[in-house]
Amino acid sequence: MKQNELVKLVDVRRETIVHLENGRYNPSLKLAMDIAKVFDVTIEDLFKFLDEE
């Protein structure tokens, strides 16, 4: 899927998707859920929680 398609489906700016892909942005729970729904996967399948201690 192209970034522009995902942008339209989850209603965010393209820059947001670019930052997500590069690990420079933590999505809101709603955005994470919306993206997971688009790809029919769980949030855990898409995102990895790293405890920064």
TrEMBL record:
Asked if the record carries the keyword Transmembrane helix, the reply is no
Q: Could you tell me the keywords of this UniProt record? A: DNA-binding
The record, for Pfam families, names: HTH_3
Question: Could you confirm whether the keyword Lipid metabolism appears in this record?
Answer: no
In what residue span(s) does the HTH cro/C1-type domain sit?
1-46
**InterPro entries to which the protein is assigned, alphabetical:** Cro/C1-type_HTH, Lambda_DNA-bd_dom_sf
The record ties this protein, via CDD domains, to: HTH_XRE
Write down the Gene3D superfamilies for this protein, in alphabetical order.
lambda repressor-like DNA-binding domains
Top-level division of the source organism's lineage: Bacteria
Protein name from the UniProt record = Helix-turn-helix transcriptional regulator
